[in-house]
User: Which sequence fits this backbone?
């Protein structure tokens, strides 16, 4: 009986992790198409409206993937998330800051999607302003993925994040250099931001989530809360999930973390 | 708007471009070359504003959805 429950939960956990990464990749692709779409593809034979439709299609697909990511995380009994957590970023116990960033990013993204679907009926500037929220949302998504994700210690996943970051930086710079965006000052500011923010994220990532010891932080800080609430379940959940990522190293480091506290 | 029949037979659909908003992205000309053409500066000129076939209507709706400046509109007007 216990095994029968454990297997689907394990499966849910795999789906949560993979759909999160896929959603991130898709949203990155949509962002790049959106950024470059404003850049006019004058030389390209293909009708440019196809890029606009591709942008929309990929963005919607990414949103669906994100929904899968969130639903499987909520349904997974080990996460103790509950349905309200989809719209309430506060008060999570598992890696609260990075989870809150993910939840807030999803809610804002939902606003972007909804206003885009209703675009025809809205003032242009309103739609546009809300659309720009995607930039901070995307950055929040990166930090959420790196900080919450148990896969951030794997080289292949790190490369995935680095490539995604690099592509967006290149796309933003291509647009900034094309002179499409406002004044020169605005362009300079945007270009600097587009370099500074990813650089900061990378520095943080190399000092945090990319290290194999990253997950032990949370176990040590959380086990206090767990012992006061007296719930043993959450400890075993952490062990199961960390263990399922196949890193023997991890369970050792989390044990060390628990002993510290 | 008169809430009459849903069929298009009673209504004429036509397109309208707000030249002040339009930024010349050209999506509309790409999809509706029979009705529109580019002027010398790459902005669209409306040669025919009436949408005849169902295909044209579908294409025009696609443009309306994606026109980056919301300058392109499909308007309905009752048949006189
Ligand atoms: S799609 Fe819209 S912005 Fe682009 S040329 Fe046509 S009317 Fe102008």
Assistant:
């Amino acid at each position: 009986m216990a095994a029968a429950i454990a297997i689907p939960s394990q499966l849910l956990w795999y789906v949560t992790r993979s759909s999160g990464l896929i959603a991130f990749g898709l949203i990155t692709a949509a962002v790049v198409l959106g950024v470059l779409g404003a850049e006019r593809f004058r030389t390209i034979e293909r009708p440019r409206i196809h890029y606009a439709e591709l942008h929309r299609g990929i963005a919607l697909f990414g949103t669906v993937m994100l929904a899968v990511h969130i639903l499987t995380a909520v349904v997974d009994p080990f996460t103790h998330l509950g349905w309200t957590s989809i719209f309430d970023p506060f008060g999570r116990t598992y890696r609260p800051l990075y989870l809150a960033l993910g939840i807030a990013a999803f809610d804002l993204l939902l606003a972007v999607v909804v206003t885009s679907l209703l675009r025809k009926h809205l003032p242009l500037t309103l739609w546009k302003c809300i659309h720009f929220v995607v930039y901070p949302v995307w950055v929040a998504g990166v930090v959420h993925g790196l900080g919450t994700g148990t896969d951030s210690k794997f080289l292949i996943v790190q490369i995935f994040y680095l490539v995604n970051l690099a592509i967006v930086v290149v796309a933003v710079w291509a647009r900034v250099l094309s002179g499409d965006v406002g004044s020169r000052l605005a362009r300079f500011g945007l270009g600097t931001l587009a370099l500074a923010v990813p650089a900061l994220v990378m520095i943080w990532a190399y000092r945090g989530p990319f290290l194999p010891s990253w997950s032990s932080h949370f176990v040590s800080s959380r086990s206090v809360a767990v012992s006061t609430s007296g719930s043993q379940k959450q400890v075993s959940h952490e062990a199961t999930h960390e263990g399922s990522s196949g890193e023997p190293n991890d369970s050792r480091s989390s044990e060390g973390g628990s002993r510290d506290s | 708007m008169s809430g009459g029949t849903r069929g298009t037979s009673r209504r004429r659909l036509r397109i309208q471009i707000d030249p002040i908003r339009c930024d010349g992205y050209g999506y509309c000309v790409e999809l509706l070359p029979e009705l529109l053409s580019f002027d010398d500066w790459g902005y669209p000129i409306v040669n025919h504003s009436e949408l005849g076939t169902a295909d044209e209507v579908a294409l025009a709706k696609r443009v309306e959805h994606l026109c980056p400046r919301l300058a392109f509109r499909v308007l309905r007007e009752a048949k006189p």
